[in-house]
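A.,

Following up on our hallway conversation. Structure tokens first:
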């Protein structure tokens, strides 16, 4: 049997919920409730496209020219987006991860980021996926194993599908007061702008590839977005951070 491009497939289930986490990149290949995908999947026999569900570590988004400064020292990461002369979405998208724990409804993936040219810091990373009453919860933890401070951030790329209809028929809610403007050529952040009285105000479509900030939070301190499809189903994406330890996010079906 040929090796799948995404490596080992690790399935977790509870009730009608099912998710598959993969070895390559340590991300979510699919998450569904019954026969309804909550996250847009990619084919099990294909490489992950568009960073579907993948942890983006030690930085999300793009570094212009791969360059950054930490504690007065300049570093240069490899240009993994060479067409736009950027380093994009960290180092772990195509690395193998290991299942450190695997239970019926929970799997913990882990990997070590060894020092690299442009990032001379050893970092251990764990991402725990757990199914429960509120959907799938994702907890990301990074530990610096070196003897100097390192720069480390995290993001993830879940895609919420429109259900059986078109995205034009969906309703999007997003509690964000500010959008981050990016340049057209390299998609690098250049400024921020309020969303009030603009087409980017989703607090109350068009094609979007836009980051947002100044997020409203619920009584649990979670920022959120909600997508309602024409068939009446809804999915909620939420996240909050515990500084220096973990980033926690989740996808809630049918809310």
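Then the amino acids I'd put at each of the 255 positions:
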């Amino acid at each position: 049997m040929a090796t799948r491009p995404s490596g080992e497939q690790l399935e977790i289930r509870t009730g009608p919920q099912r998710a598959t986490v993969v070895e390559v990149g340590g991300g979510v290949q699919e998450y569904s409730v019954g026969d309804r995908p909550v996250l847009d999947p990619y084919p099990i026999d294909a490489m992950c496209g568009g960073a579907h569900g993948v942890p983006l570590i030690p930085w999300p988004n793009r570094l212009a020219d791969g360059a950054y400064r930490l504690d007065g020292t300049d570093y240069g990461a490899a240009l993994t987006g060479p067409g736009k002369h950027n380093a994009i979405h960290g180092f772990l998208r195509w690395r193998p991860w290991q299942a450190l724990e695997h239970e019926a409804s929970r799997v913990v993936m882990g990997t070590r980021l060894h020092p690299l040219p442009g990032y001379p810091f050893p970092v251990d990373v764990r991402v725990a996926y757990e199914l429960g009453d509120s959907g799938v919860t994702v907890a990301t933890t990074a530990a610096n194993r070196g003897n100097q401070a390192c720069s480390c951030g995290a993001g993830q790329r879940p895609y919420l599908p429109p259900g059986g209809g078109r995205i034009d028929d969906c309703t999007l809610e997003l509690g964000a007061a500010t959008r981050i403007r990016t340049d057209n050529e390299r998609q690098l952040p250049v400024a921020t702008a309020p969303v009030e009285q603009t087409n980017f105000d989703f607090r109350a479509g068009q094609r979007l590839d836009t980051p947002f900030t100044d997020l409203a939070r619920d009584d649990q301190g979670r920022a959120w977005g909600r997508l309602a499809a024409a068939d009446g189903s809804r999915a909620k994406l939420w996240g909050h951070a515990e500084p220096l330890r973990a980033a926690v996010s989740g996808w809630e079906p049918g809310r």
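The radius of gyration is 18 Å. Curious whether your intuition agrees with the design.

B.
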